[in-house]
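Feature request, filed as a ticket because there's no other form

It would be nice if the structure record came with a short human-readable summary line next to the tokens. Right now we just get the raw output. Example of a typical job, pasted below so the devs can see what we mean:
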Amino acid sequence: MNKIKKAVFPVAGLGTRFLPATKAIPKEMLTVVDRPIIDYAVREAVEAGCETLIFVTGRTKNAIADYFDKNPELENELEAKQKLEALEIVRNIIPSHVKCVYVRQSEPLGLGHAVHCASPLITPDEYFAVLLPDDLIAGHPHGALKQLFQVHDREQCSVLALEQVNWSEVEKYGVIKPANDETTPIVIDSIVEKPQRDVAPSNWSVVGRYVLSGKIMGLLEQVQRGAGGEIQLTDGIASLLETEKMIGLPLSGKRFDCGNKVGFLEANLHFGLRYLNK
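Raw output as currently delivered:
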């Protein structure tokens, strides 16, 4: 059985909701307690067994690569001052067996386009993960991606993370039509991007974690611009559904939408209290 070893992180967005802070700092580098948002998603991927982390970045995102790179000057300074605890933290941000790869998204053409930018590194016969760092998920008892991997190991198909949202919010998400909504996991019948409430097939939304067949890369090449004038990942998934089984998994844990200020503050409160209660 082939294990999933590659994870794609689309991190090229401008983060305009957090201006003026994101004028100089990538939104993924804003901290939840003492770690950047992107660090939480990377830890989740590493916990699930991913060994190649593919960051799809933009020209203002050099700080992300700097964060995951080694910093000999800082390490030498900490060692000289015998700040050994801080030294261990800095040295172990990325385990030695994990490698980071950076791919540039030249234009902001949507999530589907961002994922497709990683296509030279993904073969059609392998599965890979996609993590959207804005969705910070405190999984229980395992991280969100590991939960998806467990279903994939059993079903050997693509798996999407799901959450039931208020009907008033369905037009913000990709929404599935379940073939079965009384048992878990859910077999997905179809999917649509940001439907109006009166035509939404359900209120099961896709939230920030995907296990996808590498065949989707070829399909994304053919996708036309959809909602918002962008190349939508949801449309590529819809095409994949025409030939392959796909499963939706309601996650165990709590999701924080760090793409907006309220969700970001809630995440800081949640993880801050966990830190204080250690």
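Something like this underneath would help us a lot:
The mean pLDDT is 91.
Residues 170 and 197 are 6 Å apart (CA to CA).
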